[in-house]
Amino acid sequence: LYKIRPKRTRPQALLFLCMILLLIVLHTSYMIYSLAPQYVMYGSQKYLVQSQAPSTDPVPRNVTFSTTKICDADAPEDQCIVTRTYLFLHKFWFFSTIYYFGNWAFIGAFLIGLVVSCCRGKKSVIEGEVEADDSDLSDDEYVH
Predict the structure, then answer these.
(1) Membrane-crossing residues (predicted)?
(2) Contacts 24+ apart (CB under 8 A), 7-13
(3) Which long-range contacts (CB under 8 A, 24 or more apart) does 134-140 make?
């Protein structure tokens, strides 16, 4: 809709650009629950697992090894703590229902918009709204 040029960008273009960037960040933070549920649930937590070493010696010894594992649904509850956002989304059925149907509403709106934009002919959105200083000829006036 607008040209972005040094010292010649219209304020409406900058506001529109900021709005688009904010919507991208909002959508990314919204979809992170679907894209990386393991990370949302536990983050980067790890826990220790104690295991006995198999002994081939005739004298029995208590040798234990500890290894670290990434927290998952099978981890002990006392060693891995779920994040607050996971609790908020899964403990209260109201918010998880809104999130679930919000995902489907986004997919539906995207598909409807895709079909509509593919079926309609190309038409200028800003026809008759472009001012003289926004035309292609105005770039000639700008000195580098």
Answers:
(1) 12-33, 92-116
(2) 8/133, 8/142, 10/134
(3) 134/2, 134/3, 134/10, 139/3, 139/5
Give me the mean pLDDT over the 58-85 stretch.
Answer: 79
In this predicted structure, the answer to whether residue 69 has a pLDDT above a threshold of 80 is yes
Query: What angle (nearest 5°) sits at the alpha carbon of residue 129, between those of residues 135 and 122?
Result: 85
Does this model's pTM top 0.70? My answer is no
Residue 1 pLDDT: 64
Distance CA 51, CA 69 (A): 12
* C-alpha 31 chain-centroid distance: 4
Burial of 74 (0-12, 13-18, 19+ CB in 10 A): exposed
Q: What is the distance between the alpha carbons of residues 72 and 14, in angstroms, rounded to a whole number?
A: 44
pLDDT > 70: percent of the chain: 74
Residue that is written with structure tokens 């779920």 in the block: 82
Does residue 44 contact residue 69 with C-beta atoms inside 8 Å? no
Q: What does the alpha-carbon distance between residue 6 and residue 23 come to, in Å, rounded to a whole number?
A: 24
Predicted confidence (pLDDT) at residue 112 exceeds the cutoff of 90? yes
